[in-house]
Every structure is written in structure tokens, then in C-alpha cells.
Write a structure and sequence with these properties.
Layout (H helix, E strand, L loop, with lengths): L6 E7 L2 E6 H18 L3 H9 L1 E2 L7 H15 L7 H4 L8 H13 L18 H11 L4 H8 L10 H9 L2 H4 L7 H20 L10 E2 L1 H18 L8 E2 L8 H12 L13 H9 L6 H12 L3 E7 L6 H16 L4 E5 L2 H22 L3 E6 L7 H4 L2 E2 L10 E3 L14 E5 L1 H4 L8 H8 L3 E4 L7 H17 L3 E5 L4 H14 L20 E6 L2 E5 L8 E8 L4 H9 L3 E6 L3 H15 L4 E4 L5 H15 L8 E6 L13 E5 L3 H8 L17 E5 L9 H6 L2 H10 L3 E4 L3 H9 L10 H28 L25 H9 L6 E7 L4 E2 L14 H8 L2 E3 L8 H18 L14 E4 L4 E4 L2 E6 L3 E6 L1
Parallel strand pairs: 6-13, 7-11, 7-12, 8-10, 8-11, 9-10, 12-13, 16-21, 17-19, 17-20, 18-19, 20-21, 23-26
Antiparallel strand pairs: 1-2, 2-5, 3-4, 6-14, 14-15, 16-22, 23-24, 23-25, 27-28, 28-29
């Protein structure tokens, strides 16, 4: 029997001493681990763990041995707390009396003179490292031991640390170095008791019976162990007990009460799809799917071992619905129990959430089961569709419903939930060396992964996406990639990384000609070690778009000419400042009612209102105004269902230009004679291929050059999509007919691009997870070793996107008494402790211009001024959960605020403006 006085947790609450014995915490963790194995892990995850092990055939099934290994880990995870270094550690906030009392009890049970233990080097033996060291000394190999060493989020960086523990810090483990000393023997004896208990519960009768496990399998079990430990450490589920209570009599009752509080729904199970037509009708109300939608689902159905599936098809073809139905088949075929749907931005994620929720609601109703869904990005808690879902309800009376489980709301836990819609960062972060990364891998291996709008990801992000696909390939997680436009080399790059993750030799794999050509539309997919395709689609007639190049200087004259006709003019510029300036000019010339403006520098609530207004004006089946000029930036090209009669776009990379064309005469509606022919005016081109610095700051100069050069006078959509994209991105050696001077200029720009791409790849490697090991040679040791720790999610997001530092604040307006939002002049300052009021304030976010954050010294000064201002005027925000950690500014009566040498002006019509003081 383990010593009943060894403690795992202690605290003082309202004058009462509380504690939990080490034995009880290990018991709790063991029980949680058992529950997670049976009810949380998908069948596909269990199979992967079994396949990742090498074990003796002793009559037990592979799943039984894998589960036993998880139980062994649960019981030994805190064996490092059975050391004098831990047992003499002071509590973080409890009084010294509690610390002394627990030490005295240990002394009374045979740990003599413990109160005089010298703690000078105790911090060198953190209990996670101590646990791995103790297991190593008992003969447990590093593949399993490193899981224990990493249970606080980060495996040890070097195996040599264990040897250092033994040679230099023995007293931290045994109180004294001398092995013959009774105290030394006492500690070793207690550690052995825990180890023997774990071996007995796991039914391992010798060290040799502990299975060998691959690096990937160990990482999944590491995530599962962290999860079990966190749940068992949550006092809402497993409360501490009075200091004099030594045991909990009814262990079964304790666990059942905790489990009922935490667990909300079983893994979803889909037996098989019905007829494809019926499924599309039941989920979306479609009479029947189109050929591409049907083709994607059939590709998954036909594959014996589906892996990565890439769908390239025109905008508006229904790729989302096709992917969701294909997900159902993949859940069935690969024994997954969830979905991650990743998109490039928060706005696109918000737009997708309700669509996925509706699909899941219909699926859950058909299966008579409850499912849990989560929106994941930094403002998810402010999304009304998400926050309106029921939380922690009694599922016995709510079959066929969609809910959220509150436990998964923590940042580290979000990806563990079953169904997730979020920004693609969540997926890219699977390859960022960061603490608790194992939890992210645990969450993703449970799901089907869908990544949308892949054409929007730059080269730096692709470094992380490629590595993430390698790990998904290693885990045999099915991945669906959706895109309107992909260069051939990008398509092959995605497939290659997934297949290399599977441990396959890329050069030896047969690549069908269609997969390495510009065939369009195209479904490329893998089936085990084969690459297959579908391309026998009959599309509707092409939309032929007339392309006219115009000088940017003549933009107002062009708009004036177009405005004479009835119709909706859509204008997309590359910078916020240009869109604001043009909107002002147009307002002066045509009147305020003629103009609508949309860009990213509006307060979040204003932007949502503007998006909704645009959708009500120029989306499908709306009462369209006779004339309207809609001016915006790149936000217009991202998943907003807008329909312009004519479009003006600033030059941008050809794939993004095609995306913008997707908003030109998107739907079949009656148009005036002037706009019978879809026409795109492109501004910003010039014969010298010299672009504004602000354009080059956003887009690669060389790609702009090639996009201009290959831009035709007419574009057939979708026929020309693959040809144009591949001309720009693929064929560097293609003959270009330019004067020698211009050709030399283009080649020099190409060299700069290659250098920059190389630099980006190197930057990505600094923080990127190494490729998975399929040889059983590597363990978790050193897996997350990085020169600079990544301490926050925000830093992680910046790392995977290679973005410049930006600062987001909460923007409010001064009122005669207090402050309120720009939209409603209601004083919110006096009700700040009300969560509803705090949530209203939290929605008023605004991104500051880059001039206040682009350079490190400027960034630091801006943050310092904001922090000083908030400490002086908004200190009470830190008491409120919704506002804690936020920085706010209160604009004066003239809507101005001075910050770090700049005057900020918030204009309700034009958004955030700024000028140098």
C-alpha cells in the first residue's frame, strides 16, 4: 500500500486546509484514463495506437495491451512527486502551517528528518523529469518514459538530463545520496510501490512486457495523459478533501459523479451513407448533387484506404457541401468521430460556422445522437451562433442535438472537441514547437480534416501546412483540400508531403498524367499507396469575362462613366488607405448614398453590420438598388456572396484576381444592356512593370509582373483558370516576349523572390516540428526543443503566418458621463462588472494601423502607452473575464485619440484614419 501521507495537491480555502493524497490523485487519473479510452478516443485512434506498438503476443488483444499501457502511464505519471524535492515544496498561496503539517505527518510515517531537507537544488528535479528518471532506473525504455517526462507539456530536450539527475541530484530523489541510508531506502521503497501498482493494474508482469511504441503513437498517448491529468486535477470534478481525511471510501461513486459532470456525448458513429441523392437532400435540401459533388463522394466511397483528397473546382460549385458529405463517408470508413473545417480568416470561419452547424444538426437528428461543435479563433466567444448553442445540458433528454461542452473552451483544449470550425492556424499549429502540442495532435487525429481556400496561403504558411500534412499522413488522418485555383506544383507538393508522412518513397510512386497536368476541374486523391483522380465532369457553359486595363489615375473618370448606367459597381483596391481615399472622392462626386465601403479597419461590430448590409443589397435574391458603388479591399474576395454588375480591381496575383472575378455577375439575374457582357477593369498595370511600394509590401513583385504579363483580354471561367494560374506560377522558363531591359528586370525580381522564399523556409524551420519518424528509432525526447520558447497562442499564430506584429484594441467613445460604443451612446462604464455589459464592450475590437507596430521600438512604445493609459483609466476591466488582458482606448467627443505620435480618428463612414502629429 502506497504511503497515505504523500500529498499531490494542497491548498487553504476560507481558513480550511484541503489536500489530496498522491495515491488518490493517481487513482483519479487512472479512472479518467479508463473513461477516455472507452468513450473519448475514436476507433481510428485506438487502431493507430495499436499499430504503433511492438509487443509480445501473450494472448491479449492489441487494443487490450494499448489500453493497459495507458493505465500504466496514468498511475506512474506523478511518480516524480514521491520525492523529497516535491514533498517539501511550499504551496503557491497556502500558509506555511499547511506545508509544515504535511511534512510532519510524513516524518511520523518513517520519513525521518524531512523538515531539514536541503532544497538548494530541488528546482533542478521537476516532478515530470523526476518521473521519467525514476522509470528509467526501473528499466522502462525512453519511448514510454518520455511520455511521463512530457506530461506537463514539453518532453525533456536531452537524454543526458536523466544521467545528470542520477549523478548530481540524487538527494532530490532519496533525501540523501548514500544508498545504505534508511531514508534513501524508504524513498526508493515508496517509489517501487507505485511502480509495482502500475505494473499490476496494467497486467505487465515484467519490464519486457511493456510494449515498444513509435514516436507518433507516444505523442498521441502523451496528449491523452495530459488530458486525463487535467481532468483529474480539476477540483470541480475531483474536489480536494479535509486535511484530516486520509481516504475516500467510495471510489466508484467519486469517479461517476465527476464523469457525469465532464462527459457530454459519445463519439459519433456513422454506419454507412444512404443514397447520395438522399443524403444531399436530407442535409441541404438539394434535389440532387451536381457532378462534382457526386464525384467527390464517390471517390471516397471507392477508395479502400482514403488519405488526402484535393478538390479543385470553380467558385460557387458547392465545394463545401461536397466536403461535408464526403466527411460523413470518411468518418465511417476511417473510424473518425469529428471534423475540423479550417478557413483562412476569422470572417470566413464565422460565415462557415452556421453552415457546418446546420449540416451537423441534420446529421445528429438522423443518427439520434448528440454532437458537440466549437468555433475556434480569437473572437469565437463573440459569435452569436456559437454562443447561443446549449451548454452542458442533460443529454438524456436531448438526443439529436448540437451542443458545446464547456470544458473544451480553454485555449489548449479547444481542438479536443469533436466538431470544429476555425481559422487554419489551428491546423498549422500542429507543427509549431509549443508546450502541450500533444493535445493538439490528440484532437486532430480524432477527426477528418478539411482545409478550404488553400490558394490563399502564402509560401511561409505552406511550410507549416506541408509539415502538418506529413504528420496527418503518419497518423493516417483523412484530409480534404478545397481550392478554386491551385498551381500543379502546389497540388503535387500537398500530395507528396502526405504520402511521405505515410512512410512511402515519393519517387517510386506512380503519378497519373492527369494529376500532374492542368486538367480542370479535378479531384486528386490517394488510396493507400496509390494516387488516383476523377476528371470526367461536364460543366455548365463558360462565363467569358472581358478584361480592360485602365490607368489608376483615371479611376474617377472610369467610375463616372460606369455610374451613368444602372448597375452595381464593385471596386477592390489593395490597401485600406486607398479604399478610404477613393470612397471620399466618390462621396463628394456622387453623394453619400451612392457609396458603401468595406475594409478591415472598421470596429468589428461595424464591419459585421456593413457585411450584412452588402449581402442585403447585392447578394442572391435581393432587391438590388438601381445604382451603387461598393468599394473595398481583399475582404470582399473572401467568402462574401456578393454579385457586381461590373468590377474594377487593382492588379494582384492572378489566382486572387480570379477569386475576385467570382464576385462579378455571380448569379443569373437580369442586367441592363450595358452589363450584358461581364467586364473587369484592371488598374495598376504599366508598361515598365513598376508598382507602388504599398502594392509590393502586400504582394510579391515577381508574381505581380507575371500576372500582368499573362493577363489576357478575355478570361473564360472556369476553362482558363488552370492555364492562367500555371502560366504565372509554374512556367518560369516560358518564353516571355519583352525588351531586354524589362526581361532583365523580371529575372532580377525572380532572383529576389527565390531568395525571399529560401529565407522564409529557413525561418519556418526554426520553430517547426521535425518530420515524423516511422522507424521506431526516435522517442519524444527533444521533439519540442526550440531556441526561443513560444509562450502564447498569439505568438504562435504570428509564427505560422509570418505576419508583422499588429495591435488590436477595444475602441469606445467618450460620453457626457462615462463611455459607450460608437453605435449606441449608452454609458457602459458604470455596469462593467455585469458580464453582459463586458461582453458588449469586448465586441468593439479594432486593429491599429501598422505604423504603430511595424518596428520593435515603435511596437514597444505603443504597448507601453496603451498599458499606462489602461492602468490609469480602465483598470477595472481586469476584474471582468471578458475584458481581462484587453487594452482599450476611449476616443474623445471628436472621435480622436493620440497614441505614440499619431492622431487616430474614427469615422463611422470611412473607418479608422490616422495622421502624424
Amino acid at each position: 500500500m502506497i504511503n497515505k501521507f504523500l500529498w499531490a495537491k494542497k491548498e487553504e480555502k476560507r481558513g480550511l486546509f484541503k489536500w489530496l493524497s498522491l495515491r488518490q490523485h493517481l487513482e483519479d487519473t487512472k479512472n479518467v484514463m479508463n473513461g477516455l479510452w472507452e468513450h473519448f478516443l475514436s476507433a481510428g485512434q485506438k487502431k493507430f495506437i495499436v499499430d504503433s506498438m511492438i509487443f509480445e503476443n501473450n494472448g491479449k488483444s492489441g487494443e487490450k495491451i494499448a489500453k493497459n499501457l495507458s493505465i500504466f502511464l496514468a498511475i506512474t505519471h506523478d511518480i516524480g512527486k514521491c520525492t523529497p524535492a516535491f514533498q517539501t515544496m511550499e504551496g503557491y498561496s497556502n500558509p506555511r502551517d499547511l506545508d509544515d503539517y504535511l511534512v510532519e505527518r510524513l516524518e511520523s510515517s518513517g520519513f525521518y528528518d524531512l523538515k531539514n531537507f536541503d532544497r538548494v537544488t530541488a528546482n533542478k528535479s521537476h516532478h515530470a523529469l523526476a518521473g521519467q528518471s525514476i522509470l528509467s532506473w526501473f528499466g522502462v525504455k525512453d519511448d514510454v518514459g518520455s511520455i511521463i517526462g512530457g506530461h506537463h507539456g514539453k518532453p525533456i530536450d536531452s537524454k543526458g538530463l536523466i544521467e545528470v539527475q542520477k549523478n548530481s541530484y540524487g538527494a532530490n530523489y532519496f533525501q540523501v545520496e548514500n544508498q545504505d541510508n534508511s531514508a534513501h531506502k524508504k524513498w526508493k521503497e515508496e517509489q517501487k510501490k507505485i511502480f509495482d501498482w502500475a505494473m499490476e493494474e496494467a497486467e505487465f508482469f515484467s519490464i519486457e512486457e511493456i510494449p515498444k511504441i513509435s514516436q507518433e503513437g507516444a505523442f498521441i498517448l502523451s496528449g491523452l495523459l495530459i488530458m486525463a491529468d487535467w481532468i483529474a486535477s480539476n477540483e470541480e470534478y475531483f474536489p480536494l478533501i479535509g486535511i484530516e481525511a486520509l481516504e475516500i471510501e467510495d471510489q466508484i461513486c467519486r469517479f461517476k459523479e465527476a464523469w457525469v459532470k465532464w462527459y457530454k456525448n459519445d463519439c459519433i458513429e456513422i454506419n454507412n451513407l444512404g443514397g447520395i441523392n438522399d443524403v444531399f437532400n436530407n442535409r441541404f435540401g438539394f434535389d440532387s448533387p451536381n457532378e462534382i459533388q457526386k464525384g467527390l463522394v464517390e471517390a471516397v466511397e471507392e477508395a479502400q484506404e482514403p488519405g488526402i483528397i484535393i478538390l479543385e473546382a470553380p467558385m460557387g460549385i458547392g465545394k463545401t457541401e461536397a466536403a461535408l458529405v464526403a466527411t460523413e463517408e470518411l468518418i465511417y470508413k476511417t473510424n473518425r468521430s469529428g471534423l475540423f473545417f479550417g478557413l483562412p480568416t476569422q470572417a470566413t470561419s464565422n460565415g462557415m460556422f452556421s453552415r457546418v452547424e446546420n449540416w451537423l444538426e441534420n446529421l445528429s437528428r438522423e443518427l439520434s445522437t448528440s454532437t458537440s461543435i466549437r468555433l475556434v479563433h480569437s473572437k469565437a466567444a463573440l459569435n452569436e451562433d456559437f454562443t447561443s448553442l446549449a451548454k452542458n445540458i442533460d443529454l438524456d433528454n436531448n438526443e439529436g442535438s448540437v451542443i458545446t461542452n464547456e470544458w473544451f473552451s480553454g485555449r489548449k483544449q479547444t481542438v479536443l472537441d469533436d466538431f470544429i470550425v476555425g481559422t487554419v492556424d489551428q491546423f498549422l499549429l500542429t507543427t509549431l514547437k509549443q508546450k502541450h502540442l500533444a493535445l493538439r495532435h490528440l484532437g486532430f487525429t480524432k477527426k477528418v480534416v478539411v482545409i478550404d481556400e488553400v490558394h490563399a496561403y502564402d509560401i511561409y504558411m505552406m511550410q507549416y501546412l506541408n509539415q502538418a500534412l506529413r504528420w496527418m499522413g503518419a497518423y493516417k488522418v483523412p484530409v480534404i483540400i478545397l481550392s478554386a485555383t491551385l498551381p500543379i506544383n502546389r497540388r503535387m507538393e500537398l500530395i507528396e508531403n502526405y504520402m511521405r508522412g505515410r512512410g512511402l518513397k515519393w519517387k517510386k510512386l506512380k503519378k497519373p498524367d492527369e494529376v500532374i497536368s492542368a486538367v480542370y476541374p479535378l479531384i486528386s486523391y490517394t488510396d493507400g499507396d496509390e494516387i488516383k483522380f476523377k476528371n470526367d465532369f461536364i460543366l455548365s457553359a463558360d462565363k467569358e469575362v472581358k478584361v480592360i486595363r485602365e490607368d489608376k489615375k483615371n479611376l474617377i473618370d472610369l467610375i463616372s462613366k460606369l455610374y451613368e448606367n444602372e448597375g452595381i459597381i464593385g471596386i477592390i483596391l489593395n490597401t485600406v488607405r486607398d479604399s478610404q481615399d477613393l470612397a471620399k472622392e466618390c462621396q463628394e462626386k456622387f453623394g453619400a448614398d451612392a457609396i458603401e465601403l468595406l475594409h478591415s479597419n472598421f470596429i468589428a461590430t461595424d464591419r459585421v453590420q456593413r457585411e450584412n448590409l452588402l449581402l442585403s443589397l447585392v447578394s442572391k435574391n435581393t432587391d438590388r438598388p438601381k445604382r451603387k458603388i461598393i468599394i473595398g479591399t481583399q475582404v470582399i474576395e473572401q467568402s462574401l456572396d456578393l454579385d457586381f454588375d461590373v468590377m474594377i480591381s487593382e492588379l494582384c496575383p492572378i489566382d486572387l484576381l480570379i477569386q475576385r472575378i467570382g464576385r462579378l455577375q455571380r448569379h443569373k439575374i437580369n442586367r441592363t444592356d450595358c452589363y450584358k457582357i461581364p467586364t473587369l477593369y484592371v488598374v495598376g498595370t504599366n508598361d515598365e512593370f513598376k508598382y507602388e511600394e504599398k502594392a509590393k509590401a502586400i504582394y510579391d513583385e515577381y508574381i505581380l509582373m507575371r500576372s500582368q504579363y499573362f493577363l489576357p483580354d478575355r478570361i473564360k471561367i472556369p476553362e482558363d483558370i488552370p492555364t492562367l494560374v500555371n502560366k504565372v506560377y509554374e512556367d518560369e522558363d516560358r518564353e516571355i516576349n519583352l525588351k531586354d531591359e524589362l526581361l532583365s528586370f523580371m529575372k532580377e525580381s525572380c532572383k529576389k523572390r527565390k531568395t525571399e522564399l529560401s529565407n522564409k523556409e529557413q525561418r519556418a524551420k526554426t520553430f517547426r516540428l521535425d518530420k515524423p519518424d516511422t522507424t521506431f528509432k526516435k522517442t519524444l525526447i527533444g521533439l519540442l526543443d526550440t531556441p526561443v520558447p513560444i509562450d502564447t497562442e498569439e505568438i504562435g499564430y504570428a509564427r505560422v503566418r509570418d505576419i508583422e506584429d499588429t495591435i488590436e484594441i477595444i475602441a469606445l467613445k467618450k460620453l457626457p458621463e462615462g463611455y459607450g460604443s460608437f453605435a449606441e451612446c449608452i454609458d457602459l462604464s458604470k455596469d462593467i462588472d455585469n458580464p453582459s455589459t463586458a461582453k458588449i464592450i469586448a465586441k468593439e475590437t479594432l486593429r491599429l494601423p501598422l505604423v504603430l507596430s511595424r518596428y520593435p521600438k515603435v511596437f514597444e512604445q505603443t504597448i507601453k502607452e496603451l498599458e499606462d493609459y489602461n492602468k490609469k483609466y480602465l483598470l477595472n476591466w481586469q476584474r471582468q473575464t471578458w475584458l481581462r488582458g484587453s487594452l482599450g482606448i476611449i476616443f474623445d467627443e471628436d472621435n480622436t485619440f493620440v497614441l505614440n505620435g499619431y492622431k487616430l480618428i474614427y469615422d463611422n463612414e470611412f473607418g479608422l484614419l490616422y495622421e502624424r502629429m
